[in-house]
Amino acid sequence: MNKYVDVPIIDISGLTRSDMGVKKDIAAQIDLACRGSGFFYAANHGVDLAALEKVTTDWHSSMSHAEKWELAIKAYNPANPRSRNGYYMAVEGKKANESFCYLNPSFNEAHAAIKTGLPSHEVNIWPNEGRHPGIRQFYEAYYSDVFNAASVILRGFAIALGRDESFFEQHFTIDDTLSAVSLIRYPYLENYPPVKTGTDGAKLSFEHHQDVSLITVLYQSAIPNLQVKTGDGYLDIPVSEEHFLVNCGTYMSHITNNYFYAPVHRVKFINAERLSIPFFANLSHASAIPPFAPSHHEQAAPNSAVSYGEFLQRGQLDLIKANGQT
After folding, report:
1. Is 251 contained in some domain?
2. Is the pLDDT at 179 greater than 80, yes or no?
3. Helix, strand, or coil here: 78?
4. How many CB atoms are closer than 10 A to CB 143?
5. What is the CATH number for 106?
6. What is the per-residue pLDDT for 326?
7. Is 265 labeled as catalytic in the residue annotation?
8. N or C: which end of the chain has fewer CB within 10 A?
9. How far is CA 158 from the centre of its chain?
10. Is there a domain that residue 2 lies in?
11. 211 is catalytic
């Protein structure tokens, strides 16, 4: 029998209202969840997740191999200079999952970061509009929607940390955020490639890791596959198609001196057609929040300040070294 970890469902809608008592109650729930299992479900977020699931399922099924190759990042297709935005290929006999990652739609040729060639900034390439009408428009709108949901959630984090609710706003802006959306597909295959095995013998699609983000806001199909590391070993995370699954990334852990830690989690191997669509909420390249701890949490040796751009580059490289190219 599967053992599920406690992942509370938190109604975040009150964070958009004026009642500070309600906001503090929501913040207390976030605090409890992030100091517990490390995960919670955000309810009443205002995003149409059913549409996201349908559009993404239909789009993945309509993509040809040639189209995927044309969009593939340079790790797969050396002709494409992009290392973040693009298609992450399945590799026959080796790797089954595939995905398309896109970045901030504000990054165009006129954007200052693009003009100066700052690392991790890329102008998005998209599937051919004639073959996939409306795809770019849909996903750019989704980026805005999930960014806004993450902004609301971060108000709760700020209050939980004893800061003003607007604490993260100057660092998390729609014009400069390095946030990314990944449209990940795990297929059903008759002849599945070899899968990884955890130290406890569990079959895995993706090994243990921590997210390189401030927070991660995830939609996934209602098929249990995520597990989180606990004092009792790895436990299953319950699923929901109605809510966003939220957890802290390594930058939140860094700036709070691990008060809000980044949970170690992994993806179980399940041979079933399903989606995983994380929004990695990242700050701007130059943001460097001085690490601190809540007033009620003593910390003898605080971490040093580091810019988000540097932190993101280093963290993503370490993730690839540990788990391979996704």
Report:
1. yes
2. yes
3. coil
4. 22
5. 2.60.120.330
6. 73
7. yes
8. N
9. 19
10. no
11. yes
